[in-house]
Amino acid sequence: MITPLNDERLNALADDASSCVALHFRQPLLPVEGAGTPIFPPTYADSPQNQGHFGYNVDELADGTRIATIDSVGSQANRMEPVFIKALSGAPENPFSALVPQIDIKYGNEKSISIMEAGHRLGDAVIRSTELKEQAREAFMAFLDHADAAPLAKLAPTSLVFGVWDSRDTLAKLPRIVQSVIRAEDVDVLTRSAQYNPALDYAQLEVFSDEVREKQEGDPKSPLAKRGFVHVPAVKTHGGIIARGVIARSVTVNLIALRRLKGQNAQALRRYILGLSLVAATAPMDGFLRAGCLLTPDPDDPAIWLSVTRRGERVPVDLTEEGAFEYARRAAGQFGVGGSRSVTFDKKLAVADTKVKTRES
């Protein structure tokens, strides 16, 4: 039996310390080409497993099973947060954008970036390079000095949803309330090889000598190879992985972290952040993660949301995108969404910030 989540039950998630500790969603995924076909995880540099080279993040368990990261927690957050950005002119209206203040930073030649596209959110260097610098600092200090998260919620509420660490200034740190990650189980790592062939024989055309060609051909780091003038093989490069186990997206809404939020009008604050968290957690995922990795939900293994009690009991609940939005809309009206604005990148502030010595945590 699936428990419906009406306003009373949702409010209890934000208000009642004896309520469940989390909402969890595990969504099996499939490559568009079908189960058992290769997909390409992200590559990382300078990891111990890769001995300084770019490679996949694949961990081996004690029994020999290998688990691959397909999309990290940070990457998932950066994909989810833009669901709240106001649509560009001419695009269909985004109803989620009305739930949060729209703050844009103008820079360069009529370019702009949303605060929700800044990797470190309110703690990002780009924020310290605008007139928002002092207001952001005051909001962080209100949290540090008085445990008051309301100023942060008025200025940048998604920093509460996805977590923020003001690591370059006040050192204020708030945990993620919404956390998502995609992993593949029981994987085999593949390689691939390719051969680049130049369109012409440039040595024969006397662009360079046969001797020079012989010295540089086959070396991808040689000047002529880099410019595409000689044959270059690429052997045993990244060929993706095959998952013999499940590929799954795991989404958790941390209700204990949510209920620890305090401040002015604390009840309305927590319900507002809960609403935003539910919207972020239920919004459909864009499954195109990178070239060679396009995933869709597995129609034969539909996922359901579970509420997890303090004793570990897991109860199916009816949490939908539409229900989450309606709750968030009402909660936003009660708390009051902060004001939207456009600010300008200030080169002088940025230059000054580069000279500030970062505090140690």
How would you characterize this protein structure?
This protein has 361 residues and is an alpha+beta fold. It has helices spanning 7-15, 73-80, 125-128, 133-146, 150-155, 158-161, 210-216, 223-227, 255-259, 266-282, 321-335, 347-354, and strands at 3-4, 22-31, 58-60, 66-71, 103-107, 111-114, 164-165, 173-174, 178-185, 187-196, 232-243, 247-254, 288-290, 293-297, 305-308, 314-318, 341-344. The strands form 4 sheets. Strands 1, 2, 3, 4, 9, 12, 13, 14, 15 and 16 form a 10-stranded mixed sheet that branches. The chain has a 3-stranded mixed sheet with strand order 6-5-17, with no helix packed on it. α1 (7-15) packs across α10 and α10 packs antiparallel against α11. The longest helix is centred in the C-terminal third of the chain and has 17 residues, at 266-282. The mean pLDDT is 93.
Quick synopsis:
With 361 residues, this protein is of the alpha+beta class.
